[in-house]
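Notes taken during the Thursday session

The instructor put the following on the board and asked us to keep it in front of us for the whole hour. The protein is Dihydroorotate dehydrogenase (quinone), mitochondrial. We were told not to look anything up and to reason only from what is written here. First, the residues (508 in total):
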Amino acid sequence: MAVNTINLVLRSVGPRTRAVPSLRYTTQRVSVFHRPLVASNSMTLRYSSDKASEPTQVAKEVPKKAGRGFKRTVLGTSLAIAMLVGYIYATDTRASIHRYGVVPLVRLIYPDAEDAHHVGVDALKMLYKYGLHPRERGNQDGDNALATEVFGYTLSNPIGISGGLDKHAEIPDPLFGIGAAVVEVGGTTPLPQEGNPRPRVFRLPSQRAMINRYGLNSKGADHMAAVLDQRVRDYAYANGFGDHEEAKQLVLNGEAGVPPGSLLPGKLLAVQVAKNKATPDGDLEAIKRDYVYCVDRLAQYADILVVNVSSPNTPGLRDLQATAPLTAILKAVVGAAKNVDRKTKPFVMVKVSPDEDADEQVSGICAAVWGSGVDGIIVGNTTNRRPEPLPQGFQLPPKEQNTLKETGGYSGPQLFDRTVALVGRYRTLLDQGPPAPESTKESAETAEETESPARKVLFASGGITNGEQARAALDAGASVAMMYTGVVYGGIGTVTRVKQEMRDQQKS
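Then, after some discussion, the predicted structure tokens were revealed:
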């Protein structure tokens, strides 16, 4: 009875009571509980040792994390330095990659020379927009070793870029940036015209020469005027003059202290103008209107206006180099230039053909220059002739022999000797002064006007590719040596290289 009563009590108290050891199993239970206690102590010791080891593990991990951070810092810094060095190198005109890497690569990727031209212009335009364009570094003209006087301006150097490289005035500033003191944009025509059908530009790599028959492709004078107008407005705003018409006019009137065309000290912008292909060759009045239209829209943005009467790819254009029509056209251009709404008026030059080299032709052009009041001559342009290959006796590859048969104007080093000779002849004739008037009466009327005429300026353009040739052109009587094909084959660093060669000549 007593046992039953105990069992009933145990059931009622539940599991907790079962954990209470009976007196029967006290010794056993103590030994059993002792083992877990020991186990518990060992576990406690193990946990304690784990906790004690934690600082050691942290100490081991800290250098590892610090090492990874240091490596990342070194890698990031190295990458930044590499990018900076690469940027400085790639944007320096002295970098050989422009001549020996970029030029061959472009020729390989773009077999059509006109495609390569467009890609080059677009690339320079985009790179300039983001400040990544190639440029001269270190103020290389700062020693004034190559400084020269032109039209009353002191130019930083006597090297220029001929018209045709920047046909639509898209990249004058990048071209100034590569070191040229004179950049000629255009030619432009009054109305847009497509030019001749493609293909129309051909390379002769063995001669570093080209043949082109672009035909004065142009977006028109209004388009070029809009581009140049925006350029002046951007300059006015960037230099604190404001963003309004008066600000633009202040810059054009010289208030910024820079030439109104180039917008850069020591540099000049030339704008080349021409007639439309559709304008009748025999209608002199219509031809004059073409040139005057271009002048009226573009003169205010130019330091020099260049009258192109010598492109071999516009039918009838070279006929305008005869004395009578040339004088009439140049008088019209000079008159329009004098009416430009600007304090200083642009100077006017005429671009003549190297093929018009007979004595009567040269003297007739000089007479037209004196008779019209034009300020100078650019000698010359591309030639319809096909010069002998260089060096003498060299046989052109079959492909280039076929290319030589293409219609168009030839440009390249082979023109250099003729250019220098022609510059010398023009210099001699122009320095003799204006031709004597036909009658004493005319002499009396013009005596005051021609009493002390300003010396006419000559630019040399044709075949110039190195410093020695540029110096020879200047010694022959030119004030500026201009390049085009030499830049195409020599790359964006050509102007810098030519100037350095000229400096080296001076030192030797």
